[in-house]
Amino acid sequence: MPGSDGKRRRIGFWYRLAAFLLKPPLVLLFKRDWRGMEHIPQDGGFITVVNHNSYLDPLSYAHFQYNTGRVPRFLAKVGLFKGGFVGAAMRGTGQIPVYRESADAVGAFRAAVEAIEKGECVAFYPEGTLTRDPKMWPMTGKTGAARVALMTRAPVIPVAQWGANLAMPPYAKEKKLRLFPRKTLTVQAGPPLDLSAFYDREPTAEVLREVTDVMMDAVTEQLAVIRGEAVPAERYDMRKAAVRRREQRATPEHPPEAREVDAEHQPAGQPPAAAEAAEGEKNA
């Protein structure tokens, strides 16, 4: 299997500098509950698929992953690489720029495939954006992680996290940290997924969707353990939700109270439906 020859990325200067700057405030301000570190491969390339419910949770997950000795490479918007200290840190830590305007889906993830084949960890946020699910469960995922998983056949580790969203809720009207009482950042990694049934199938859109659903199911199951709740019967689909709201607005006889109920079930500070629809189309 690619990347299984004992190779692993060295942590390097920039990652150590980031850890030096960020770990002390994280340790001071938050409690930690790290689970499932034994599922993180000790060598060879692998993929992690992670839920996204706060602008703060990349730091929570990176802290967890750094403590395993296997640093992650994130896929990030190309604009973050352009200049200044942040750009230098993104380049120095080996993060992977994503060109959203590219029509070549395989080419957009070529760097991720190369990194895995070199024995590195590549972290995916399959949802493509912060969850819009009213109860903060993972939404439907994009198929990029599935495509890379089938190309590399590398281990795929589902990772769920909870707690960063309590300190910095997504879409809150006031983007202020809620540090007190002190929050616990919980990160839980599950066992590698068995995707062998898909390896000999042509990676059609249908197959990629099936693999993505397997990934999102596994992440959701890990999050259910953290939260001590049952897995939702249906996964929130941002594009379908936007379509439903457009249909409601276009139907004069649609009961006003139904529209009000729909609005009540949006996260605090949720963008209007038009913005959500545009976000769904952009991340498709």
TrEMBL record:
Residues 242-265 have a biased composition (Basic and acidic residues). The keyword NADP does not apply. Coiled coil: none annotated. It comes from the Bacteria. The keyword Zinc-finger does not apply. Signal peptide: none annotated. Residues 46-164 form the Phospholipid/glycerol acyltransferase domain. Residues 242-284 are annotated as: Disordered. Residues 266-277 have a biased composition (Low complexity). SUPFAM superfamilies: Glycerol-3-phosphate (1)-acyltransferase. Keywords: Acyltransferase, Transferase. Pfam families: Acyltransferase. GO terms for molecular function: acyltransferase activity. This is 1-acyl-sn-glycerol-3-phosphate acyltransferase. It comes from Streptomyces oryzae.
